[in-house]
Amino acid sequence: MQNEPRSELLNFLHVARILSLVWMLLGGLVALIALLELVVSLVYLTPSPGSLLLFVYAALWGMTDLFIVNREPHWRARAEKGDFVGLHEDLLLWVVLGLIFGVVPGVILLVIYLRLDPKAGGDWATGTPSNPPTTATSPPPYAPPSAPPPLPESSSPPPPSG
Fold first, then answer.
1. How many Å apart are CA 129 and CA 132, to the nearest integer?
2. Full-model pTM
């Protein structure tokens, strides 16, 4: 039972790393396109502040996801050692940066952060499984309904038939 929350946490960290890798490549591609547009606009002496802002944002987007990819083995080692408090504290900065510059990996990191927070009802910090086994008993087997009770005998004579 103790390994189930830990393995779920490790799976979430792995998903965060893969999504960060994909978003890092996408951010790098957007930064490259914005840089090319910025260079072309500077060559023709019509600089565009929008392309400069897009380049800066995309570069920060790619770098944030690169750092998340590089930090994941450190987070994985902390989770395997059981240092959930240290992992929870270490994730805060990356949750904020991930939500600002790489939304999808940031959401995954936010889920991990909240599941590690015992004040928010996180179950990974306490080691309890996310879906504990139920102790409900099964319903009783089906029993067909019994025959209706007989009608009471009346002392009055039956009505005349004639």
1. 5
2. 0.67
